[in-house]
Structures are given as structure tokens and as C-alpha cells.
Request: fold
Amino acid sequence: MMKGKKISLVLILSFLIPGMKGENPDAEVPKERGSSQSPISELMSGYKMGMGTVGEVSPEAIGIDPVTYLTTWNFNNLPPEERKKFYQESNLPNGRLLREYWFYTVDKEIEIAPGVFFPAWTYNGQVPGPTIRATEGDLIRIHFLNQGTRPHTIHFHGFHPAEMDGSMPEDFVAPGDTFLYEFDAEPYGLHLYHCHSTPLSQHIHKGLYGVYIVDPKTPRLEARELVMMMNGFDTNFDEENEIYAVNTIAFYYMNHPIQVKLGELVRIYLVNILEFDQINSFHTHAHFFNEFRTGTSLSPNSFTDTIILGQAERSILELRFRFPGKFMFHAHKTEFAERGWMGLFEVVEE
Ligand SMILES: [Cu+2]
Reply:
């Protein structure tokens, strides 16, 4: 990183201060910017400009492959027999659909950048936790078992009775204990869940959170759908984050670009759970998106390329890519981007 800053500074100085060029009459005249033979590309060749990490994380780094996480809800990444252990659907006599989940908490070390390990608290061994997805009006039932070492809960955003809120001391589930959460899936939109045990900042930033999607009864348009949780990690426990990411692993989608098709409708379920920092943001390069804040209306709130979200704020984003190639997306808080919250879409023609 420091090396990059020095190179940039020298380049800027040489372009801005005429005297610097005059000192060396034999120096070649810099070619036009954008030329493949320019001094910039020579200097930067073989240098990643801080856009990524060296090395790779292990396949089991966060309990789920971040590429798989993008398109996984209701454990649809698991083979049928394995999936039944964590998710089952059944029809109730009144015609409603019951969606049952088996969740547990467990302490687990995860790898958030190559060689950077974090002692996480997890739902079902993964960070973020498993994505829950229902249709408005379904009945959701969650069998919760605390296998961790601290009292935990699952606090859902969305409508539910007081005894299902998972936020008061009497709601805390002690290690080894169980609790049954049950509530209707409403309102339709994009929500989240997280532990609400105390101290809350610790229970959240350690990794106990996940995405909760409620689809409207009339489905949204068919789209390539992607789940993204903006998060961060305080690796030295000074209540400031050292690593920032979307879906936990720093720069993962720089090294593994998210494949999308030219012209197809892409829908992003974007949630911000970042602890300690007041805001997070999301920016797409060269393309604009419709933003549906909290996903609770079918009319977009804005058409833009950058949004800002506080903790627990979330938006559904819809866009179509107009050009093939690689396009960055990242926090437009530069510090976060440089510390891992940066990725690529790779737009391919069919
Ligand atoms: Cu907790």
C-alpha cells in the first residue's frame, strides 16, 4: 500500500511540476494517457495497486463459499436429504405454507482474508448466517439451539409478537438451551435477523446476523438474484474495524468476479450490518440501479449509482448491465474499499 502511494505521488508531481521534467532533458516525453506503453502502465505492471489480497482463503473459510452464499436461501445449496435437517416446508390445514428451520449457534474461527483468522460466533457455522426466504403470509417456525458459550437469541426485523422479539434478558437462550420462534412472514420486503444478547455490539460484530427476505404474494419479475451483506471485523478488539467486506471475506469478489449476463435483470438484496462505523455505502461503476428501500414498495425510491446505509438499513437494487466486461462495485467510503469492501461484476454475453 505504501509503495503504491509513493508511486502515485511521484507520478502526480512529475506531471504537475514542469521543473521536474526540465531537470532531465534526455527523459522521454510521456505518451498520451491510456496508451498501453505509458509510463503509468510500465510502473504499475505486475503491481496490483492494492486491489486485492495476496493468496487465497481456505474453502471452508467462512462456512460457505461466498459465491454460493450469493444465491443461497432456505439451504437450497444442500442435497435434499441434508437440506431436510435444516429446512422443511409443509401445508397447514388453513392452506398456509409453514416454513421450518433448524438454527444453532456455535463458536467458530473463520478466515476473513488470507491468513487473517477471526474468532467468530456463528449461526449454523457460517458468517453471515443462512438466508431465510418466505412469501408474505407464510408461517415461519425456527427451532433454535444455542451450542455457543454465551447466551444468544435470534431477533428478527419484521412484524412479530413481543415474546418472539429475542431482545429482553428473559429472552436470552442460555448455552445448551433451545427456543422456538414462530411468526408470520410480514411485511414483504428485505429484512435481517441478528442476535440481540448483550453487549449487543459484541454479539453482532462477532458474526451473528443474516438476511431475511419476504417476497410479495405477486412475485417480482424474474431476475438473477444476489444476496449481499455488508460487514466488517474488529480483529484486535479495539472497537474499530480492520477488515471490511461484502459477505465477510476481504476482496473475495475481486478474485472471484460475480458473473452476470449482459442485459439480464440483476436484483441485489443488500443489507448493512456493519458495527462501529456509522455508515456504509454501495457504488456501482458505469451503471445505475433502481433502489427499493427496505423492499417494502414495488416503486423505486431512486435511480442512482451510490447509496448510503446505516446499520440494519437495507435496500433491494435492480439493474441491467449495458456493456460486457468487468465493472467494480465497492463502498464509496474509500477506507472501507481499500480494506476489503470491493468486488467485480463480470458481464458476459450469452
Ligand atoms: Cu449473541
Notes: Residues 2-16 form the longest helix (15 residues). The radius of gyration is 23 Å.
